[in-house]
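Progress note, project year one: complex with iron/sulfur cluster.
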Amino acid sequence: MNKENKTELLGMNIAELEKYLLSLGQPRFRSKQIYGWIYRKDISSFYEMSDIPRDLRENLDENAEISIPRVLKQRVANDNTRKFLLEMKDKKKVETVLIPQNREGNDRYTICISTQVGCPIGCVFCATGASGFQRNLKSYEMVGQILGSRRELAKRLKLQDNQLITNVVYMGMGEPMLNIEEVLKSINMINDHRGINIGQRHITLSTAGEVKGIQRLAREKLQVTLAISLHACNNQLRNQLIPLNRKYPLEILMQAVAYYIEYTGRRVTFEYIMLDGVNMGLNDAQAMIKLIKPLLANVNLIPYNEVNGLDFKRPTPSQIMRFNKWLVEGGLNVTLREERGADIEAACGQLAAKRER
Ligand code: SF4
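Model obtained:
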């Protein structure tokens, strides 16, 4: 069969898989077997499904496909953070980052996945924003980033372990809330205990402030963590840094966040990229305290990772400590994000798949 006409099995839930297999005259229990092979066993061919009858494997090979993205390139940082360049079925490329939970890099990993090819938001400090927008990713392509990366990682580390990835953050290329329906579908798949089996509390979804998406997520009442990319605490500066702020200014964004907290009872994280000479004055700290202190929220401070061609500068350690101190003294819960993967441009705001286009 022509490859374009094949049925895509990646992204089907058990019920959808069952319906497909029933249409082939197969018994119901086959769906659970095949689901396990796809999401737990990291196979690359139907012929590896050893408990499936040979004629069904041949039929599937002829008529169906499992399009796990291919790892085209990878870079490994000094701290063992890995950046993968993954190719989708239509040859579009995205970057995915794997961050080890210990620095030896052989333990458990957090994966940072992309939700769009490029990004339409255009934050002025971000390599992805500077690279433009191509298309939304499908839920199976988000899940596929986990499977493709896990398979590559297991191969590199010479480990057979489908629990290598334990946490997922939607902070790669793209604005997840502009693709919220596919993101929600992917969370369901990631969460399924018969498959990838990563609990909702181990999943974080970030947004530059797309209010409709925040409201949509609130209504789902998931146990995931919502992270808001704040980066400025007055509209004038935020309009310059994150163009989306002109559509949803801070007053509207904070109303949506308050609604989210009230509706879900979940603590929210505010991400704040520290840009030297831009957003780290005492007035910025005071404005942040005023905005965030009334909320059930944490602040995550991230020193800027410089991007070639963009003018922003990383602050010095003493500037970082001073800004942190102002916020803590003002009563905020603050954490300083540990630096990971900056030497391979895998850190926050550095993803662009740029050299490979
Ligand atoms: S920071 Fe996030 S929302 Fe802004 S341009 Fe980059 S990827 Fe898009």
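Residues 70-344 form a domain with the TIM Barrel fold (CATH 3.20.20.70).
The mean pLDDT is 91.
No further modelling is planned for this target in the current period.
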